[in-house]
Amino acid sequence: MLSKILKYILVFTFVLLIITVLLQVFSRYVLIVTIPWTEDGARLILIVMTFLGTAVALRDNEHIAITFLFKRIPTKYKNYLSIFFNLIILFFLIFFIKGSLEMTSMNWVLPVVSFPKLKIGYIYIILPISAFLMVYFLIIKILNDINTIKNNILK
Questions:
Q1: Which residues of the chain have pLDDT under 70?
Q2: CA nearest 127: which of 61, 66, 72, 48?
Q3: Would you say 140 and 81 are in contact if contact means Cβ atoms under 8 Å apart?
């Protein structure tokens, strides 16, 4: 369910990004008038799309990874190495969540220049949300690896 919701949000933000950029290009080069909010709007949409996309990429194992060690070790040890690397990422995410929560709270009331009613903190809230999603997906991956190790031991 969560995966479907994330995919729909990502598709929606991507379409919104395309519309915003096309509107910016059309207004600038055809109408010779720049719409002031389109540049900031595209940037903000890209931020949301990037961080939610990062969580989805981590869930689907499509994030950037160094596979050098995975290719060199025997198959029976790959789950151990996966758990180790996922724990390192989890450790990093704890600090990322702490920092992103602090940054969000510091900027909660600052307005976005092109959108005075929109606060920067509302945009920054995507940072801890995506980090919590990544933690959730990592915990699932670690538990799956532990189950795989248990099943291999019982065989």
A1: 66, 155
A2: 48
A3: no
User: Is the separation of the CB atoms in 47 and 130 below 8 Å?
Assistant: no
d(CA 131, CA 127): 6
Give me the number of domains the chain comprises.
1
pTM to 2 decimals?
0.86
**88-126 burial by CB neighbour count: b if 16+ within 10 A, else e?**
ebeeebeebbeebeeebeebeeeebeebeebbbbebbbb
Q: Tokens 């190495």 appear where?
A: 81
pLDDT value, residue 63: 76
**pLDDT attached to residue 126:** 94
Q: Cα–chain-centroid distance for residue 11?
A: 14
- How high is the pLDDT of residue 32? 86
Q: How far apart are the first and last CA of the chain?
A: 33
